[in-house]
């Protein structure tokens, strides 16, 4: 016989499927607040359908988005007006970044698909002096604090989906169609490895199973 907790979780899964929302896009305004009002160039790693890249273009002279999925890159190009100073390329995040430096580098829900320390090293190499790196990532919950924050996010996730969709059922957002996999690094491991590559980086656990990393290249 199915226990009550399992029935509740199944009901929540069904509710969330009917009222989906983009957890990553939820943090886009926060990401913009970490950046200067104006900057010259930006790189968005794992750009998906280009939502963040187009937002960055409202503050930047040029924005380049890269993603390993050619289908989502084609979708990003279709969604981006020709007058917008954004370009998209199908490329590997470690080997396919153009040989340039950028004032801003962003990476949203992508780095857990990549070798973590190697990725930070590559981002640091491509970040111009005075530039800002912002990462929104996923972690594997391991500590009591992780599990408590995750439990608090469950009802908030359902409520946010209801409010964002105004109580109506909705299709899955385009930017959430790419294949995903669970994160395999814990937050303490992420903090330790980040400190070894990016001294002074600021890391925080966040709601909705996310963490943030901000580093300024002095």
Explain what this protein looks like in three dimensions.
The protein has helices at about 5-20, 30-35, 50-55, 70-80, 115-125, 145-165, 185-195, and strands at about 40-45, 60-65, 85-90, 100-110, 125-135, 200-205, 210-215. The chain is of the alpha/beta class and about 220 residues long. The chain has a domain at about 30-90 and about 100-140 and about 180-215: Vaccinia Virus protein VP39 (Rossmann fold), CATH 3.40.50. Strands 3-2-1-4-5-7-6 form a 7-stranded mixed β-sheet. Helix 4 links the parallel strand 2 (about 60-65) and strand 3. Helix 5 (about 115-125) runs parallel beside helix 7.
Summarize the structure.
By secondary structure, this protein is α/β, with parallel strands linked by helices. 37% of the residues lie in helices and 23% in strands. It is globular, with a radius of gyration of 18 Å.
